[in-house]
Amino acid sequence: GGPRRLLLISNSTLHGGGYLGHCQQHIQNFLGQKVKRVLFIPYALHDRDAYARTAREKFESLGYGLDSIHESCDPVEAVRKSEAIFIGGGNTFRLLKALYDNSLIHEIRKRVLEDGIPYMGSSAGTNVATVSINTTNDMPIVYPPSLKALGLVPFNINPHYLDPDIKRTHMGETREERIRQYHEEPNTPPVLGLREGTMLLVEGDKATLQGVTGARLFLRGKKPTEHEPGTDFSFLLNDSNPLNP
């Protein structure tokens, strides 16, 4: 085993670029030379075959083989044998339900937290890496048995974080207001709002913001704060024991 290693990406595609194009250098740095094959989990989208083709093409261009878990007759065994795991974006509720349905929550946690294999997530795949999916932007199109997720980190993330647009006349709730409503509930953990083009690198007990756009941090009962790439967010990992979400 080794320390947990996570690359939690806000979004798969950045405006003007291709699939994972904006973070491909980060992915190569993260996976390094030791990893030869990546286990892809496409459960967040309905067309898993097409999703796997897109991911396979990208990872092969970066020098990595890719196996999609939906092509395996034994998903649990696929996780147990994996060298690295990548969970892609889509609908977070659909994704989490499929992880529960296939008995993968415990298996993925064990591989990542005990065995130390690299875990990558983008969008919904980042949501499920956290303590729960309470701060997803997605509609609950299916009903997972719990909103508790993998608990690889002891806080929440809001991928695709959007700042309020002061020029718009839309009167719906802003992302910030929705997160504040979440924090009106007791004992709710921090929420890291990751803007497009931003990601969080976790190595053991160290967490660093990477990418180009920055993040907004929400702590219950406090004013939100603004953070640039390079920020050390390691203190977020100490709020509770991530082995007991």
UniProtKB/TrEMBL annotation:
Keywords: Cytoplasm, Dipeptidase, Hydrolase, Protease, Serine protease
Region (Disordered): 222-245
GO MF annotation, one: serine-type peptidase activity
Subcellular location: Cytoplasm
Keyword Hydrolase attributed: yes
Top enzyme class: hydrolase
Pfam families recorded: Peptidase_S51
InterPro entries, A to Z: Class_I_gatase-like, Peptidase_S51
Gene Ontology BP annotations: proteolysis
Gene Ontology cellular-component terms listed: cytoplasm
EC number: 3.4.13.21
Catalysis performed (reactions): Dipeptidase E catalyzes the hydrolysis of dipeptides Asp-|-Xaa. It does not act on peptides with N-terminal Glu, Asn or Gln, nor does it cleave isoaspartyl peptides
Claim: Cytoplasm is one of the keywords in the record: yes
PANTHER family cross-referenced by the UniProt entry: ALPHA-ASPARTYL DIPEPTIDASE (PTHR20842:SF0), PROTEASE S51 ALPHA-ASPARTYL DIPEPTIDASE (PTHR20842)
Family classification: Belongs to the peptidase S51 family.
Function noted in UniProt: Hydrolyzes dipeptides containing N-terminal aspartate residues.
Name by which UniProt lists this protein: dipeptidase E
Originating species: Ptilorrhoa leucosticta
